[in-house]
Design brief:
By secondary structure, this protein is of the alpha+beta class. Helix content is 50%, strand content 10%. It contains 21 helices and 12 strands. The strands form 3 sheets. Strands 1, 2, 3, 4, 5, 6, 7 and 8 form an 8-stranded mixed sheet that branches. Strands 9-10 form a two-stranded antiparallel sheet. β9 (258-259) and β10 (265-266) form a beta hairpin. The longest helix has 33 residues, at 505-537.
Length: 652
């Protein structure tokens, strides 16, 4: 089975595992990243910044990491489950902050990535590479979250001093949730603000601004800690500016706009929204990192649940018999379904990474949409998988030292970060409404000439070779059904929108949005199933599809992937079976066959669950930090020293 596990690992992580993933896997197993249960919130926050420095010390070139979307994603994939607070500050520093600096330096000056750039004050990029200063990102405001294009912080050009004056006009314009406290060292941020030149608003740009020294906020900068956030501790703050001056070089300009030596603003982009989106372009790479964090967290919790289910024994049907709880279908059924989903999450994440890295000018919009939808779909599925895994481990998984509650809380942050999932889906839905709908596989034409095994009677219908002649074992049939689900919901959305008179765009959107959002979900399921198919195509053929059994001998990676993909597709088709039946894409008999087909696949895959989670390649050092993962977890409660003592009874 080892070769099968190795093949599945390559499927999950790609062929370049040693370069792309192995360094982060080793770091996840190293002493600095061992879990420290019982640490206070303050200690855990300090630890996150300590780990940031540990990672920085391991890098040959921070600039190369900043330029490597795959490397940033892999960092989140492996270290996010260990310390979500660390990956929060690391993603902000490397991707949003340094990435914005270097991308805009390259755009502005044609400089190579990693070239030092003068910044406000006396610091330069080398300070951030060496973590003498930590970088952060200040975009959203108290009154502006997903509508960040409307932020109200201003940066007015001061001709006399040849720089910009940053102001926060009212409480609603305070920057919301950046990690701007002095914890972790002196900090600077890139601040999203409206560029005003001689009173003219040119849209939102980024400005490099020193924020704190080692003790507190710099003059004119006000920083206040927010209440504790659900999940891992990060120093989220409210931050505002009272006439803070920064020099000309603070403006991160480029094609979206710049101030010339003559003090005149010029831009190659006339649309102010496009200027803003260009300025915050690093958010797309951040979505890839959020997807990676969600995938990694789902893998860890699912692996813990499968391991726990194998060694947690309960009473059997005969007296004195003890059986693993995983032996029960009610227990392993949801976990096997989750395995099919986690493989789909992993493969869709890799597909989105590939699409983003290979994008051309012609397909950038589609690649960006895939990255965004993948982030939403993957993180929502991760919440389901983590929640299910937690439940299957019962009360043990509620204990902090077993790690699951931290990951369950952490995924809520992922769902909201780098664009709230619902807002991401709404944008994609609006784009899909006005683009070409996917074309379902056409129904076959006249039935072939009857042979000795031809169907006769009512099932033969009117002579057409329709869905009643298709089988749920046919991958092409399942592919067509996945496309049909997407087309059904898009057609409904367009029909509903057409029923509302033109002139009230909000009413038209409200009429269409429910169905359109379902179409986006269906798009994600279709793309995930296609990612499965692409992964299978890269493997050597194993057992023939007609054999239909995973229990005879040791199945190949291709066999296991085929069954996982079919289970993934059938569970989604089952959820939409009524719509597919009404659309003529399923026959009535399929509605009876769907639950049985799912049950058979779960039965076949259940025995291979340990091997499937082994393919996640999680280091044993990580599992050692979670008592629930091993058969000796009961020993964690054996306290011969008597740390807990009975409370004496009160005197009578």
């Amino acid at each position: 089975m080892d070769s099968t596990v190795d093949s599945l690992t390559r499927v999950l992580f790609g062929e370049d595992f040693d370069r792309e993933h192995a360094p982060w896997r080793r770091l996840a197993a190293a002493a600095p990243f061992r879990r420290r249960p019982g640490a206070s919130s303050g200690e855990r926050l300090a630890m996150a910044y300590e780990r940031l420095r540990t990672v920085n010390d391991t890098l040959d070139s921070p600039a190369e990491l900043v330029a490597d979307a795959r490397g940033l994603a892999a960092l989140h994939e492996w270290l996010g489950p260990v310390d979500p607070a660390f990956t929060t500050v690391a993603g902000i520093h490397y991707n949003l902050f340094l990435g914005s600096l270097l991308d805009h330096a390259e755009s502005e000056k044609g400089a190579a990535r990693g070239t030092a750039r003068d910044v406000a004050g006396s610091a330069d990029v080398a300070d951030f590479f060496a973590l003498r200063r930590v970088g952060t990102f200040l975009c959203t405001e108290v009154a502006h979250g997903n509508d960040a294009v409307a932020v109200e912080t201003t940066a007015a050009y001061d001709r006399e001093r040849d720089g910009f004056v940053l102001c926060t006009p009212h409480a609603g314009a305070q920057k919301f949730m950046p990690n701007t406290s002095p914890v972790g060292g002196p900090k600077s941020g890139v601040v999203a603000a409206r560029l005003l030149v001689d009173g003219t608003d040119h849209g939102v740009f980024l400005f490099l601004t020193p924020l704190t020294d080692a003790v507190g906020a710099l003059p004119g900068v006000r920083v206040r800690r927010l209440p504790a956030r659900l999940g891992s501790p990060v120093d989220h703050c409210l931050t505002s500016f009272d006439r803070v001056f920064v020099g000309r070089d603070a403006l991160l300009g480029g094609a979206q706009g710049r101030i010339g030596d003559d003090g005149v603003f010029r831009s190659e982009q006339s649309n102010r929204r496009r200027r803003f989106l260009t300025s915050i372009g690093r958010v797309t790479a951040g979505k890839l990192s959020m997807s990676a964090c969600a995938v990694g967290s789902a893998r860890v919790t699912l692996a813990l649940a499968v391991r726990y289910g194998g060694h947690r024994r309960i009473s059997g049907s005969r007296g004195g018999e003890r059986v693993p709880v995983f032996a029960h279908r009610s227990h392993h059924g949801p976990l096997v379904g989750a395995l099919a989903t986690v493989f789909a999450m992993s493969l869709l994440h890799r597909t989105a990474l590939d699409a983003w890295e290979s994008r051309t000018e012609a397909d950038t919009d589609e690649a960006e949409r895939l990255v965004a939808v993948a982030k939403g779909w993957i993180s929502w599925r991760a919440r389901e998988v983590i929640g299910e895994s937690r439940e299957r481990c019962g009360a043990q998984a509620l204990l902090e030292n077993n790690g699951m509650t931290e990951l369950l809380a952490g995924i809520e942050g992922v769902i909201t970060a780098e664009g709230d999932n619902l807002a991401i889906y709404a944008k994609a839905a609006a784009e899909m409404l006005f683009s070409a709908a996917p074309e379902p596989e056409p129904e076959p034409g006249p039935a072939p000439t009857p042979g000795p095994d031809a169907v006769s009677g009512p099932e033969a219908g009117d002579g057409s070779y329709g869905p009643s002649h298709r089988e749920l074992t046919d991958p092409l049939f399942l592919d067509g059904l996945l496309v049909a689900v997407e087309a059904v919901w898009l057609e409904r959305a367009r029909r509903r929108m057409s029923q509302v008179p033109h002139g009230d765009s909000l009413a038209r959107w409200n009429a269409a949005s429910g169905a359109a959002l379902r179409a986006v979900e269906a798009y994600a399921y279709r793309r995930a199933s296609e990612a499965y198919a692409a992964a299978m195509a890269g493997l050597e053929p194993g057992t023939s599809p007609s054999s239909g059994s995973l229990s005879s001998g040791s199945p190949s990676a291709r066999d296991l992937l085929r069954s996982l993909r079919r289970l993934f597709a059938l569970q989604w088709i089952d959820r939409n079976s009524g719509d597919l039946l009404a659309a003529g894409r399923l026959a009535p008999r399929h509605l009876d066959e769907l639950p049985e087909a799912v049950e058979q696949l779960i039965s076949r895959l259940a025995g291979h669950a340990p091997a499937l989670v082994e393919s996640f390649a999680l280091p044993e050092e990580m599992f050692a930090d979670w008592p629930i993962s091993g058969g000796g977890y009961v020993d964690a409660y054996d306290d011969p020293e008597g740390a807990w003592h009975a409370v004496p009874a009160a005197p009578a």
